[in-house]
Amino acid sequence: MSALAPTLQAFFTDRLIRQRQASPQTIAAYRDTLRLLLAFAAGRTATEPSRLDLGEIDALLVGAFLDHLERDRGNGIRTRNARLAAIRSLFRFAALRHPEHAESIGRVLAIPPKRFSRGLVTFLADREVEALLGAADRTTWTGRRDHALLLLAVQTGLRVSELIGLRGADIHLGTGAHVSCRGKGRKERITPLTRATVAVLRVWLAERGGAPIDPLFPTSTGTPLSRDAVERRIAKYAAAAAACPSLRTKRISPHVLRHTAAMRLLQAGVDTSVIALWLGHEHVDTTQIYLHADLTLKERAIARTAEPNVRPGRYRPSDTLLAFLDGL
Fold this sequence. Notes:
This protein is mostly helical. It has helices spanning 4-19, 24-45, 59-71, 77-97, 102-109, 126-134, 141-156, 160-164, 195-208, 227-240, 254-267, 272-279, 289-293, 295-303, 320-326; strands at residues 171-172, 178-182, 188-192. A 3-stranded antiparallel β-sheet has the order 1-2-3, with no helix packed on it.
């Protein structure tokens, strides 16, 4: 077994799990990245992954791997940069244990993330939200579950991982109704619920039954919904919402519902610092993306400005003789 194998194992057991207490999502993301990297390196070097040496994973190989992600696997730049961040985290850890590879490690750490253009966030208008909620067939158990899930997502802006991780005990429908969750970065937060959401959740909880520790939105077998299942359900209802054709031109995902909750708060005049707390953002600057996407806010701003005193003019051709002279 080479030096790479024990270093990789210690990176997960010592650094990520014991020292950083990384979330299961972070560990899974790093695991998948390094599994892809090792498989790619094994193919390039004709060496079994367990026999790869740390020096063989050099900057040239890592660069080729990043190109492979974009060219062959069809990954976007954001995914490429996330994979690179995981690799750099491993190599920073390896630099402390293997100073003899400092030069090779330094070249890997010097690989920069790729810049990318930032588009406007996608969100749903009120009529699109109503159409999406109405697409769930509430005459069935599955439809009533999905209707409650969609309504909670649009009103609270919870991440999909937070939604599927909710338990019955996380919903509080008494005075000061709210939902509590542990979000990204292990931060706990509570989000208030509107009267309409409280009414729907009260009916759903009565029908759901089960213990307080059971999933709030279970499958038919009682297990929590998966991320893929939620994405498929949302895509299904977006395609079925024939009353709102504009939904068909948008790619609706759970994160679009999160953006929708933020935009509804912004358009209601809520300060961005409050929206950042609402969504569980680490930095208030992250919430600025919603200001760029809100055309209504910009229209209200321009309505308060004074227009310049200008008049439209008409083109008048010059005299033909002078035009001849100008053309010489």
